[in-house]
């Protein structure tokens, strides 16, 4: 289960991710509560999410080219510094009592620019920290760290918001970035070396897209990642609406709901870590793609806090299994010299399309309610999963 942690570089990287992710989830929970408290608008929650993810849409593919051309460690240090400063500024504005929703929008956009470069580099670094046979185990353990943080972070925010205020939650996140910065600074990666003669950025960009177009399995996997990004995952930015309007609970209830997703994700990550040597990864992916919309629809129509939390455990489990399986299958297929560009294409589908999904779901929720909006997204995901099952049978046979 923990083979990848036997590598010093990966162990440092994983520890930094865990501590930083806890801070990020504290901020995500507190920020959603702040925006909804300021505006009482589902559309505004979607708008903030849209602005925070919009730079990813336009810059992720360029960031993938950059990840194949520069020192990935140095680029990670820069992106973490920007994210740390952004969180500190939001904390200062909130603590001083002058924060307005436009401040949140601007800082979310700044963080989005940093994340656009951060995410492809983070993903493409992992295979350089472990041997090839341990790539899926490392990706699964990455998800373990992320989802452990997703359990602890929202629950911690639920305690911190009433105890010390929203501003201190943002300060907490700012300090947590120091853990990842320290870990990256200590990592030694021999493959980080500059190539003197390189083709143009445009040539590199086109060669990455050409590879994706020519490889049917990779192309299908990337398309599969796009569907939940557009129609399933935007449910998360509506969580304050479910907590306050649908279930009638406060910020502690919101923390419980978001932590439930983390419990499911952690369970899924540990399951994948155990199954990292399985020859039926495609079948695992197919099962998760069919189960995800079912539990999402059940959550959307639940009126009970405990049942909603239980269904969100299922959402977290299926979503993690779906996306981590997709990621590991792509990473195992792609050659290293194209890894940054292909992974950035996956990140574009997985995260870059998120702004459109968030804005769309926010608008639908404003018109017909959060429950109907999430139900509709689940139905679309189910239809797409059935289409892959029928028309792309080779996916479930991937090893």
How would you summarize this macromolecular structure in one to three sentences?
With 399 residues, this protein is mainly α. It has helices at residues 8-39, 42-67, 72-95, 101-129, 135-164, 166-186, 201-214, 216-231, 239-246, 251-274, 281-300, 305-333, 339-352, 354-368, 370-391.
Largest sheet: none
Average pLDDT figure: 83
The rounded distance between the terminal residues' Cα atoms is 18 Å
Classify the secondary structure makeup into a structural class: mainly alpha
Quaternary organisation of the protein chains: single chain
Share in helix: over 70%
Low-confidence blocks of residues = 191-195
Shape: globular
Query: Total number of helical segments?
Result: 15
Measured on Cα atoms, how large is the radius of gyration?
20 Å
Order of helices and strands: HHHHHHHHHHHHHHH
Taken as a percent bin, the fraction of beta residues is under 5%
Q: How many β-strand runs?
A: 0
From the structure above, extract its key features.
single chain, 399 residues, mainly alpha, 0% strand, globular
